[in-house]
Amino acid sequence: MPLLHGASLRALLAGAAVAHLSSFPIVRASPCAPPQPLRLRAFASHSASEPPPPPPSSPSPSTSRVLASAAAACDCEEGAKPAICTADELHYAPVPGTEWRLALWRYRPPPEAPKRNHPLMLLSGVATNAVGFDLSPGASFARHMSMQGFDTWIVELRGAGLSTRGSELAAASTKSDMSSNSGVDKILTQKVNVVPPAKDMSTNEPQSSEVPVLTDTNVLETNTSEEPQLVTKLANALAQLSVTFSGYVRDSQLRNITDSFFDRVTELVPDASLTSSLEEVADKFLGLMELPQTSAIYDQISQLSQRLVKILGEGQQNVSPRLFGWQERLSATIEDLQKQLELIISYDWDFDHYLEEDVPAAIDYIKQQSVPKDGKLLAIGHSMGGILLYAMVSKCGFEGADPELAAIVTLASSVDYTTSNSSLKLFVPLADPAEMLRVPAVPLGTLLSTTYPISSRAPYILSLLRSQISAKDMMDPELLSKLILNNFCTVPAKVLLQLATSFRDGGLRNRAGTFFFKEHLGKIKVPVLALAGDEDLICPPEAVYETVKVIPQHLVTYKVFGKPEGPHYAHYDLVGGRKAVHEVYPCIIEFLSQHDDVSS
């Protein structure tokens, strides 16, 4: 199967991302609302009876997480969970300082099960939800662990499954319906203070400082009555782009989008003599993006929009035949820009957000509910879930902090893929991160659910897909279909870009590139069971061992599942393969049992 060129892959992903956003608009639903397909993420506003997350100014991160967990304990009510959630209970853990509420699927042990001292936390892979750990009553990793006496919790990280948040779009801009004139007219007829997103800012107060006003006689003399609706639409789109840019300072992603937008606008001018005038407008707008966003800046953006529309109109007067429908084409270009901005704001997080915010919030909530005697959890991570566990214990080892974990199990996970021939090398943007940033998010669930039906029949265009997930004859075809169609979500490009550093010398690092997680695994004090599959194309055994070898030998147990004559284990088979319940699960349970003693 020929591989896609980087540009072609980017175009495919960009088209899918826009189609995904267009087909599935952001909704604000109660956590108890009718369930959405798990591969799609629903947004939820906080109800009046629901306690809001603590403000970022809480006394300390640890204290605020505990208080937030306690305040949210009432979120779980009998009969409140959606039908799609097959756990005994569905809880929501607030992430302090954000609008996110992580969905936690809880499986309580039956009375006859062995008594355990620690709850068990399960973390799944990148762009996946809880379904992978609970595929069916007869193939449920989570249920099996609860039957062994472990109070089991599946954590759905932000953006996955049933995890929800309030709309960030409203906070990021004055967000109005681009087709609605009433809200737009109000903005255009008064001075406004535009409030940038709160990210990396110490205050949300409107910026009222005066800035130099750029004067341009061509702009000021523009006929403001010409194409007023189009001007209004353009002005608001450019204003939102400017506000978004000011909230994500120096982000090359937004500059790329700006350049692309003006390139498309230039294509609407058949008169080449006007190209320089359009470039002048674009340059002036780029200059405004660098300034604090105030009402004066918005006025200038409005004037530049009038000027741009006037140039496009003049361009049609000077050529024959005229380009009919240019207004509609410009309108469509503006709407595409709006969708890109919504996608950026909706999916603006990376691996460090999972590590520093989501996982600690989940741990505190689980501790609040399960109350382990020593304040620790057992944890199992599959794929990226295991990478998160490695990163967490590495960081705690470096800081000399307690990770609050009694023991961890990693399934098909590594922080360093440099020595392996992982198939992920074909998909991660290793050479040109800026190119990947042109695609804010990858709708993996939509792509897989769309392409899977043709992967198992002639001409076998995507026959590679099955072998990436499961080895031959290791999964029932119906369960494999359910996994592919329901387990995957949309993932931000920033998450993929950070994970891609695991393919570079030194392995995975933090977003700043200053902390290498592998370097500090030798300092950890937590027992580790690291499991690999013999036919895992995504995380081959050599990749798992590359991480294992730096962990103190007395703390780590390493095992590869699969035999030369079969059965074989691919990436998901350690969790849901036919033989896993008889071969893998007992190994995990024995290890966890050894480290469940609170005195150990």
TrEMBL record:
Keyword Signal among UniProt keywords: yes
Signal peptide from the UniProt entry: 1-29
Residue stretches making up the Serine aminopeptidase S33 domain: 351-561
Keywords linked to the UniProt accession: Signal
Highest taxon of source: Eukaryota
Record's compositionally biased regions (Pro residues): 50-59
Residue segments, region Disordered: 45-64
Keyword ATP-binding assigned: no
Name the UniProt record assigns to this protein: Serine aminopeptidase S33 domain-containing protein
UniProt source species: Triticum aestivum (Wheat)
